[in-house]
Amino acid sequence: MLEAIGVAHDRGASRRLEAFDLRLKGGELSGVLGPNGAGKSTLVALLSGLLEPSAGELRLKGLLLSRYTLRERARHMTVMLQRQPLDFAFSVRDVIAMGSYPLDLPLPDLDRRIEELAQGLDLEHLLSRNYLSLSGGEAQRAQLARVLVQRGCSPSVILLDEPLSALDLRHQHQALALIRTLAQREGHAVLMVLHDLNLASRYADAVLLLGKGALVEQGRTAEVMQPNKLSALFEVPIERYQTGDGLGVFTSNAAPRA
What we know:
It contains 9 helices and 12 strands. The chain is of the alpha/beta class. One of its GO terms (molecular function) is ATP hydrolysis activity.
């Protein structure tokens, strides 16, 4: 659904990313893992068109991303960045509804989306609250709901840069379960930057490993998330243990390498 062919960015040392190929498939959640400064946010910015590649091309549903107008792009792609500044005293419901602007949804359809997302993200009791009164985790859940309201009526691309960073454990699992359900049920292609190896192992269909401005490896989650690969990437010994449900739990008890 979204394809990057030889895409690279070398304008500025702080946002350098070596050439890579990538294809996001509908119905799948792809997790992005890597240490700080590896290029994860740069990857999201490139894939969304917020950052112009210095090489290569991006295709959204077979067409060059650059050929879409901003409004057309917003009907087929929605993006959540790490920082979502909002300094106006809107209600939480109004903040979520802002995401629907490019779609021209009929009001009953918009209300259904808001109610579904409010239930899935534990926001029902907050819909009438002033957004500026929310805690960090509550505000992040409201912003995630705003982004998910914008998902296209036909399968679209959803790019999420650390959408769980302020959420507690219960809400992390709740959000990931909802996002994966939407991807599978409606056919969306989701790419999400994560820091928790165990959440990625449990919910991601595919995983991308980024390190030092390069896409190190990509593939199915079980194949990519091997202790030796993760240890080399994060420069700390990582071990994997099998759980009763057949999934892996990753731990590290050692100090980082000198």
